[in-house]
Amino acid sequence: MKIKAHTCKNSRLIGSIGTLPHDVLKVMPNQISIDAWQDAVPDGEIMSNHSPHSCCSACDREDVEKLPLTDLNEALERMANLVQPLNQAKKLQLGKTLGRILAEDVKSAIPLPVSNNSAVDGYAVRLNAMQGEPPYSLPITGRVAAGDNPEKIAPDSVCIRILTGASLPDWADAVIMQEDTTLSEDENQASFPFIPEKNANIRFSGEDVPKGSVIIEKGAKIDTRHIAIAAASGLAELTVTRPIRVALLATGSELNQPGAPLPPGGIYDSNTPMLVALLSQPHIDLTLHRPVKDDFETIQSSIASLAEDHDLLLTSGGMSVSDEDYIRRAVAAEAGNFEVKKIRLKPGKPLGFGRIKDCIFVGLPGNPYAALVGYLLFAQAALSHIAGMANHPQPLKGQAAFSTAKGGKRLEFVPVRIIGESPDGLPKLEKIGRGGSARLRPLINADGLAALPISAEGVREADLLDFYPFHSAFEL
Ligand SMILES: Nc1nc2c(c(=O)[nH]1)N[C@H]1C(S)=C(S)[C@@H](COP(=O)(O)OP(=O)(O)OC[C@H]3O[C@@H](n4cnc5c(N)ncnc54)[C@H](O)[C@@H]3O)O[C@H]1N2
Ligand code: MOO
């Protein structure tokens, strides 16, 4: 794991990060960086320029309690409108494109299959040579294996030995499987118990991919399938968007690095490693800021510096109503605009997002489950719009195998487990845990999250719910 140190212009340095005398780390793209995080900040000390409770002119703060709540769908729409997709792209060797985002449609210059060829090991036959009653006996006048040029076969042949994938001579009408064939003792004659259908066991040129057709659309996140089809089409390079420059800043005077002794009142920082794990993707170039204490000036200078040269800035904590929740004030002090100030969402109500100059900003709430839900809904949406990704994650449907005593005034995301299948084939979902945006344990047994709609009466058993599974059966 390579980590590049990156000097933060505005933040003053307190302490050191491992052996690197900087408060900001660059985690290079294409490298899994959860371990980088741990190497980076091993001593448990977090950053502050000031004594706790320091304040400043920005204390003329907005009344966070009275900020308007925005519904999830409207907030997602506003995110889509806020973000400008990246327009910088470059060609990359195919083998280096896994997880990157395709910047333009890719066409195949050749048809796939390249030529008509045999789908089985057997015998290619000319149908008009098979007359009368079975068995049909034909002279074998050649052999083609995969890789052979079929033009070596005499054009007046009526039967040849052919192997799977071998190009088919023009005169051949069908291939009969080896299992349906009897050979003469000298192996010069093949006899068949039936006349095959025309074109049997032939794979035709272009039947998978016609020449010149689009094989991968712009905005695809390149996975195993794309690598395979691009290689089959003979492409050695693909054009991908440049990595998204993402900065991560956790705030909270109570935060300590796992492994460090825990002082009274302290907790371990779980949001940083959780978010680093989520952001450790090839299309992301992650800058990890050292977690900072709840101190206005430190937070402001860190935000100012990070917003300058990143596409997306994620912060954790400090979004709520207290006098030590500084993120909103720090963003305002940097002439940032909140497009959405709070969300009608549980957990995640204090989440807000907007723009600081050219940088999209998402302020995640500090509670760990709220930070996760906020990331999955909004940071992920921001990332996919910035990258110009074609497919945005959509929920599936599931059936509630539980009921709630009453409804809620916010759309609520709860961890759920699949416990069976409904008669119409939907996953039956059991709610796990008793709620609480500070709780992580229910997630460990969950198969995904379900959204409980805003309603007076609550969820009834067998209600249809939006279901966001964590994993699918085949991950590519
Ligand atoms: N009077 C009110 N209080 C709160 C409200 C409210 O509307 N009125 N909203 C609650 C909701 S909802 C949430 S969510 C939290 C959000 O608070 P902040 O975003 O300001 O986050 P903090 O206060 O900094 O921390 C909240 C909680 O999370 C823990 N935390 C913070 N960072 C981390 C981290 N990196 N790793 C693990 N845990 C973390 C922190 O210790 C607190 O327990 O506000 C409610 N309050
Ligand atoms: O966002 Mo909060 O999580 O609803 O407790």
TrEMBL record:
Could you tell me which pathway this protein works in?
A: Cofactor biosynthesis; molybdopterin biosynthesis
Tell me one GO biological process term: Mo-molybdopterin cofactor biosynthetic process
Domain named MoaB/Mog is located at 247-385
What's a single GO MF annotation on this record? Answer: molybdopterin molybdotransferase activity
Q: Which domain of life is it from?
A: Bacteria
Q: Which UniProt keywords apply?
A: Magnesium, Metal-binding, Molybdenum, Molybdenum cofactor biosynthesis, Transferase
Cited CDD domains: MoeA (cd00887)
Q: What does it catalyze?
A: adenylyl-molybdopterin + molybdate = Mo-molybdopterin + AMP + H(+)
Protein function: Catalyzes the insertion of molybdate into adenylated molybdopterin with the concomitant release of AMP.
What family classification does the UniProt entry report for this protein? Answer: Belongs to the MoeA family.
Please give the name of this protein. Answer: Molybdopterin molybdenumtransferase
Organism listed in the record: Cohaesibacter gelatinilyticus
